[in-house]
Amino acid sequence: MRHFSLKVKLTVLYTVCMILVVAVALSVLFSLSSREVLSTVRSSLRHQVERSLDDVELEDGRMVLDSDFYSLDEGVYLSLYDREGSFLYGRVPYGFNTQPEFSDGELRTIREGNLSWYVLDMGFQLEGYGSLYVRGILSIDSAEQSFRVTMHFALVLMPLLVILTAVVGYRFTRRTLLPVRKMTDTVQNIRQEKDLSRRVELPGSGGTKGSRDEIFRLAETFDEMLEELEDAFRREKQFTSDVSHELRTPVGVILAQCEDSLDREGLTEEQRRDLQVVQKKAKEMASMISQLLLLSRADEGRQRLNLERVNLSELTETAAEEAALLARERRAEVTVKVEPDIWAEVDETFYLRMLMNLLSNAISYGREGGHVRVTLGRQAGQILGTVEDDGPGIGPEHLPHIFDRFYRADESRSGDGHSGLGLSMVKWIARAHGGDVWAASVPGKGSCFTFTIPEK
Beta-carbon neighbour count of residue 249 at 10 Å? Predict the structure, then answer.
C-alpha cells in the first residue's frame, strides 16, 4: 500500500469503511426484519381468522359463507370444520396434507417435509347450528421467500453500491487533494526552472472568495515561505554583488602596490618573497571576485553570451596545450583525443574558461606524475567532451555537491589557489549553452567530468 498514491489510499479506506457500515446496517436490518416479518405474518393470520368468524351465517336453516371467506387475503387459507373435525367449506393450501387436532386459539407451527406452516384454530358457536371451527393456514416458506427476495436484491445492489462508493470517494478525494497536487507541481517547476517567483496561488488567495480549509491554509503558508525564501536569496545575491564590487578596488590597489614595490631596487630577498606571496594571494582574490561577479550577473540574468561559430576541435586542442604547461609542475601528462572539424555556436571565451577550469581541477587534484585525458566527439546530436584524471577520486558522499559554490571535497587543500567557484562556473557555462555537465568518480582510480553542448 505504501507505493500507492494518497488518493488511492483514501479512496480504499473510505470504500472499506462504507462497506463495513452498510454490511453491519444490513445485517442488523435483516435480522430485525426477519423477526418483524414473521411477527407480522402471525398477526395477519390471527386477524384474518378472527374476521372470518363474521363471514359464517345461517339462513333458512342453511349455512351461508361470505365470498371473503374464500379470498386469499395476505396469503391466508381459511377452512370451516364441524365439531367432529369434518371439513365443511373453505380452501386448504396445496401440500398441506396433515389434519392436526384442533386447539382453540393456539398458534402452532406445523412442519411437513420441507414445508412449514402457521396454523391457527378458533372455535365459535353458530346459533341454530352448534359448535364450529375456523382454521387459518399460512405458509411460513412463502412469507420467508418474499423476505429472501428482498435480501437477494440487496445483495445484488451491494457490488453496485461498492463501485458507486469507490467512484464517488475517488472523485471527492481527488478534488480535495487537488491543491496538494498543485503544490507538488509548483515545487517541481521551481526545481526544474530554478524560479522562486512561482506560487501555488489557490483560488481564494489574495482576499478572493474560495475554500479556507486546512489544505488551503497550508498552500497559503507555503506561498508565504516561498516569498521569504525568494527575498532571502535576492538579498544574498545582492550582497554578493555589492561585496564583490566593493572588493575590486582595494584588491586592485593591493596588486598595483605590489607591482610597484617589486619594481623598486634595494629590496631584500625576504622582502621580495613576502611581496610575491601577497601579490599571489591578491591575484587569487581578484580571480575569485571576478568569478563571483560573473556568477552574480548570471543569477540575475544579466550575463549574456557572445555566440559565434567556432571550431571546437582546435579550441579544445589549444586549451589542452596550455594545460600541459601547468601539468609540468606536477610532472603530469595531458593527452588529447578529439574528432576533427567539430563546429558549434559558442561563446569562445566562456568555452575556454569552462575547459581550463576542468583541466586545472584535474591537474591540481589528480595524482602527481599522473595522466589527464581530454576527449571531444559527437554523440546523439550533441557534442560530448570529457576531462578525466587518474587521481584519488571523489567520495560518493561529496559527488552530489561538487558543483555547489565554495564546496570542497578535500578541506585540507584550501590554500591551493582554488576558490571553490570553478565547477560552479563550469556548470553555469554548460547550461547557458543549452548543455549540461556531470561527474563520475571511483575512489582510488580517478574522476571523469563530462560536458555536453548542442550541435548547431
Answer: 9
Q: CB of 14 within 8 A of CB of 165?
A: yes
DSSP string, 180-220: HHHHHHHHHHHHHH--TT-----TTGGG-S---SHHHHHHH
Query: By the 8 A CB rule, do 127 and 58 touch?
Result: yes
- The answer on pLDDT for 272 being more than 60 is yes
With a CB cutoff of 8 Å and minimum separation 6, the contacts of 20 are: none
**Residue with cell string 558522499:** 397
488511492: which residue's cell? 8
Residue 289 has pLDDT above 80, yes or no: no
Is residue 190 within 8 Å of 196, Cβ to Cβ? yes
The 3-class secondary structure across 290-302, one letter per residue, is HHHHHHHHHHCCC
User: What's the grid cell of residue 296?
Assistant: 552574480
pLDDT at site 414: 45
The answer to whether the beta carbons of residues 347 and 307 sit under 8 Å apart is: yes
- Are the CB atoms for 102 and 121 separated by under 8 Å? yes
Least confident range from 109-123, 181-195, 345-359, 364-378: namely 181-195
At residue 287, the pLDDT reads 74
For the question of whether the overall pTM of this predicted structure is more than 0.70, the answer is no
Per-residue pLDDT band for 172 (boundaries 50, 70, 90) equals confident
Q: Give me 231's grid cell.
A: 527575498
Residue 330: count of CB within 10 angstroms of its CB: 15
Q: Which three cell numbers stand for residue 429?
A: 557555462
Q: How confident is the model at residue 355 (pLDDT cuts 50, 70, 90)?
A: very high
Distance CA 110, CA 116 (A): 6
CA dist 239 and 235 (Å) reads 6
Q: Which of 17, 62, 33 is nearest to 166 (CA)?
A: 17
Residue 401's CB: how many other CB atoms inside 10 A? Answer: 12
Q: Count of CB atoms within 10 A of residue 137's CB?
A: 22
Question: Which of 101-105, 156-160, 327-331, 400-404 bottoms out in mean pLDDT, i.e. has the lowest?
Answer: 156-160
End-to-end distance of the chain based on CA atoms, in angstroms?
48
Give the helix/strand (H/E) hosting 453.
Answer: strand 446-454
Helix axes 178-193, 214-262, angle to 10 degrees: 10
> Could you identify the residue written with the cell 538579498?
235
DSSP, collapsed to helix, strand or coil, labels residue 118 as: strand
Distance of CA 152 to the CA centre of its chain: 40
Tell me the HSE value of 423 on the side-chain side, using a 13 A CA sphere.
22
Helix (H, G, I), strand (E, B), or coil: what is residue 343?
strand
Cα separation, 228 vs 241, in Å, equals 20
Given the C-alpha cell 567556432, which residue does it identify? 310
pLDDT, tens digit, 9 for 90 and up, residues 433-456: 999 999 999 888 899 999 999 987
